[in-house]
Write a structure and sequence with these properties.
It contains 13 helices and 17 strands. By secondary structure, the protein is an alpha/beta fold. The protein has 3 domains: about 100 residues, Methylthiotransferase, N-terminal domain (Rossmann fold); about 210 residues, Alpha-Beta Horseshoe (pyruvate-formate lyase- activating enzyme); about 35 residues. The strands form 6 sheets. The chain has a 4-stranded antiparallel β-sheet with strand order 16-15-14-17, with no helix packed on it. It has a 3-stranded parallel β-sheet with strand order 1-2-3, with helices on both faces. Strand 12, helix 12 and strand 13 form a beta-alpha-beta unit. The chain is globular. About 35% of the residues are buried. The chain binds iron/sulfur cluster (SF4). The site of iron/sulfur cluster has 9 residues, from helix 6.
Length: about 400
């Protein structure tokens, strides 16, 4: 989501004559788009902002914009502590970003947008379809900093997909609970069908689905539309129904596993997110997570240690010993590495549809990396027989 938001903010800045660079000393402006989902991410963003004081003082007219979820959570406190920030724009104000720029009188709009070359070459284009989240997972700060879920009108999304697919064959639909999308009765599955009808779109992915919003109509649409990638990043968080209940995740471990079974029957590979060391997680709960991980055979997982976020119910709970959390995390990471290796090796001898992102590499529909010595055209889609894998890449 943050990447898509950054892209949107960049496009507005292009309208003020800026061009993109990653070289700090060439820059006249630094845009820091922040995340606050974990304490560590927020600290890194603030510490970077602190270090920019020197950079700003070295040349006149240098500017800093501090945006996103940490900006929303901390609000005016950022300006007070870091006066070098010219604009602080919280995640809820992203839609007002152009007005904020104009009203700041720090920028003069130009009539020409200089879109950098890179914008023209992306294989995957991200399209936001929702903002905010109406779930209330006990550990999560997102609903507080991004607000209630709001679906973007389908005509805007589809127009965006039409434009972006002229340069990017793969469309990634984005939302905090992407499959909860519903604009006045226009559902997520309807939206998927419509995106698939765009001739230039070769593949459709979406992030992040919530298990509770996966219903039978989803399986049907997937079956009927081969453009929908056979991969789902489906956050699990815990394999213990008791912990899931404490987390207010709204599904049981068994319900999650049933979804995985259904998806696998349709040829899907599943990756996931898991939180280790939630305050109520016992050894037995952790064992259940490990068992479910083995049963699901995830192709990949982001595993995180529980990070208390002030203002969320889980932050009020007593944390468990860090040593124990570290230990559980290492065990889990080893298990995930094995699962991922198996997922790669399971494709040997299979035909896979690869979308090339460079002339030598691309991703399969199941989101596994493929590499070849033969020169291919970036953006082309090819059916390829997988001959070997070392557990990390297909060949
Ligand atoms: S579904 Fe839960 S974890 Fe995901 S953004 Fe919403 S509240 Fe946070």
């Amino acid at each position: 989501m943050n990447e898509a938001d950054s892209e949107e903010m960049l496009l507005h800045l292009f309208g003020f004559g800026y061009q993109q660079t990653t070289v700090l000393n060439e820059a006249d402006l630094v845009l820091i788009n922040t995340c606050t989902i974990r304490d560590h991410a927020e600290h890194r963003a603030l510490s970077y902002l602190g270090r920019l004081e020197k950079w700003k003082g070295e040349k006149q007219d240098r500017k800093i914009i501090f945006a996103g979820c940490a900006a929303e959570r901390l609000g005016k406190a950022v300006k007070k502590r870091f006066p070098q920030a010219d604009i602080v724009c919280g995640a809820k104000s992203l839609e007002k970003f152009p007005t904020i720029l104009e009203n700041s009188s720090l920028f003069k709009p130009l009539n020409v947008k200089i879109v950098p070359e890179d914008e023209n070459k992306k294989i995957t284009a991200q399209v936001s379809i929702m903002r905010g989240c109406s779930c209330k997972c006990s550990y999560c700060i997102v609903p507080y900093v991004r607000g209630e879920a709001q679906s973007i009108p389908p005509e805007i999304i589809l127009e965006n997909c039409r434009i972006k697919s002229k340069k990017s064959p793969e469309i990634m639909l984005l939302g905090q609970t992407v499959n909860a999308y519903n604009y006045k009765g226009f559902t997520f599955t309807k939206l998927l069908e419509e995106v698939c009808k765009i001739p230039e779109v070769k593949r459709v992915r979406f992030l992040s689905p919530h298990p509770v919003f996966i219903k039978d109509d989803f399986y049907k649409v997937v079956q009927d539309n081969k453009k929908i990638a056979r991969h789902l990043h489906l956050p699990l968080q815990s394999g213990s129904t008791k912990v899931l209940k404490d987390m207010k995740r709204l599904y049981t471990a068994e319900e999650y596993y049933n979804i995985v079974k259904n998806l696998k029957q349709l040829g899907f590979l599943i990756s996931t997110d898991i939180i280790v060391g939630y305050p109520t997680e016992t050894d037995e709960d952790f064992k259940q997570t490990l068992n479910l991980v083995k049963k699901c055979g995830f192709s990949f997982a982001y595993c995180f240690k529980f990070s208390p976020r002030a203002g969320t119910p889980a932050a009020e709970l007593k944390e468990i010993a860090q040593e124990m959390v570290e230990n559980r995390l290492n065990i889990l990471l080893n298990e995930i590495r094995e699962c991922s290796s198996l997922a790669y090796k399971s494709r040997i001898g299979q035909k896979e549809e690869v979308l090339f992102e460079t002339k030598n590499s691309g991703r399969t529909s199941g989101n596994l990396w493929y590499r070849t010595a033969a020169a291919k055209e970036a953006g082309s889609l090819e059916e390829i027989l997988i001959k070997e894998s070392d557990g990390k890449i297909l060949k």
